[in-house]
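As described in the Methods, two query proteins were run sequentially through the folding procedure within a single session, without resetting any intermediate state between them. The first query and its resulting structure tokens are shown here.
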Amino acid sequence: MASWCPRDRGADRGGGYRREGLAVKFLNKLFGTAEEINGHNRCPTYLYRWTIITTRWGKVYLHKFVGDDWSLDFHDHPKRFISVGLWGSYLEATPAGERRYRAPWFRTFPASHQHRISTPWGHCWTLVIVLRQTREWGFWHDGEFIQWDDYVAGKGGIADKMKACD
């Protein structure tokens, strides 16, 4: 898994690739290969997600943000979740504005929380606890909710038009 994190992403923002590379190898052996979140291959991977624990009440994930959300549209979630900032920081944009969060933090969100994450200061590690699914999730384009699978499948060309990468 040598190319999972391109050297040009964040090299001037704290780097630490050798140390992170060892951590990622260890995590992949311990929890299985990380899931890559990238908008159905529309953009470079911006989030690596390891499933740490699965129970009947929910799951615990370890997230490594390495870039910005792939879509410029806000998204919400299917589950209530708790985010614990472990290392680094990110910028969260919501309909109410933008705010930088620096580790450590403890935040909780309803499933309906709309946001978009970016990482202008380098990588960010979080522990995320999600509860049972309570709703369908999706993206918000021009104030209209679009279910995630319709959005990602490219219905109406919105996902391609709104992707955050070139």
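Immediately afterward, the second query was submitted; its sequence and tokens are:
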Amino acid sequence: MSPYGNPAWVRSEQTLNAKFWTGSEYRSSGYHGDTDDRANALAVVAGLADTNNYEHLRKVFAKHFNASPYMEKYVLEALYQMHAPDQAIQRMKQRWASQIDSPLTTLWEGWGIGTNGYGGGTYNHAWSGGALTALSQYAAGVGPDTPAFDSYHVVPQMGALTSVHSVVPTPKGEIRVDLRKEAGVFDLRLTSPASTSALVGIPTEAEHSIGRVELNGKNGLDTWRYPDVQRLLSLGRRKGSPRLCRSARQMAFQSLHEINLVAPRLFVFFWRVGVGREPVIDLGAFH
């Protein structure tokens, strides 16, 4: 269902899934060519694809490679939105391998140059930079929630990556994020511009509980574990994210402690960090 509840949107969603979903992919009944990864990706990015189809769609993106470097951006976005960061990185490496290995230092219009590309495409083309925006927006997890990044979020999907460094320029100044992940430890270091508000998420895996959280080297939430989040989620969705009891807020150093209702298996909890000056926040989670 569309999160917006718009009747026209819901009808579009229902029509797409009823008319074009074959049980394993989206395609027209009159089309006999190779399954189009672009169309399937856009169904996900537009929010029209049924989430129950995600497992099948991941298989589509593992087998079909019709997207140009420009449209490949939307395939990567679809994989990240389906919470498949490892597959996104794998496909990214596969698709851009020849450009990375080339002595040229620019990105090409096609997957090759000349007859190997689009019959003479350029070898310096900005539309091929979608992988870079995907890494910033999803792997590092930085994106705006309000115009001009007055409020923004940092909700990383690192997958198998063990470290990420990202600098995002905004009208308020640079957002700097350094992520490190190793056995039993996740560390997020955020430098946030003055007069901004950041929603910071701690990623986890369903089979792992967070045993300890440290904020700027101080113990944060010793016993705040994934089952507690599940218990709170069972209380039901309300408009906006629920605010927890005063004691939980005190444990989170007087910040607004929020639960991610969209993907509870990805982020155990969020911190809302509101500042009037430029701080450095060092957030660590320990299994």
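Confidence is low (pLDDT under 50) at residues 221-272, 274-278. We note this only descriptively and draw no conclusion about the first query from it.
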